[in-house]
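Figure caption, in words: inputs first, then the predicted bound structure.
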Amino acid sequence: MTYSIKKAAAAIIASSALLLAACGGGEEEAGTGSGSEDKKVLNVGTEATFAPFEFMDKGEVSGFDVDLLNAAAEEAGYEVDIQNTGWDAMLAGLQSGQLDIGMSGITITEERKETYDFSAPYFESVTMIAYKEGAEIASADDLKGKKVGVQNGTTGQFAAESIIGQNDSSISKYETAALMFQALQSGDVEAVVTDIAVAVEYAKSNPDAGVETITDEQFVPEFYGIAFPKGSEYKAEFDEALNALYENGTYAEIYEKWFEEEPDMEALKQ
Ligand code: ARG
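Bound structure (arginine present):
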């Protein structure tokens, strides 16, 4: 009797000690306390006009990519400093090694793989056309002969060029996704070619813009990856971290927060 009470008491003491330790640890990580000081800070570049993946919210970069990268960094034992560098500067920063990571809805392509390393895929996307109502676009081929906007250096540009042709003056290239959408809004272009979730988000958050969206069978699925300088020591660690987030449900949680549906985990395992 006495013995078991003692044992129970000991168990209670032990578990509250554990609880205290857990709380203490949590506080240190969240604050600027000693716990975070030894974590290496990785420099991250992005182009933050690409909602819901990355966009500026009250002076901070926010979005699905931000939540996912923060979770992966936490898992891998790093801190990340995410700066809205812009697209071209991000790519240049990765090439020069000034940036450790590019997190910007970046599609993994064979060509880019020659210049950068990529994590395992973390999001499946496909090209989408957004156009002003009445522009008579029923398929990708209808882009021919239209004024088309793209974000410079993106897969949207490559898709538009594969239909219309390279260096065709009917394609206007914009430095950011926001400028591309502005051109659609103002009527400078009749259609833009971008990524599905971004086009859908734009149409949803600008209900009065009169924007319609279509995709086309000739656009094949693409996958986003976290980009690193070639030969980066961090790639393997972030792959491992992503995998942990896939397995422990954190990825699904973040996905549901931003897309209000469950992710197709099978699509990422390819
Ligand atoms: N997924 C496309 C690409 O990799 C577009 C990415 C644009 N990202 C952005 N944050 N503006 O080319």
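The chain is about 45% helix and 20% strand.
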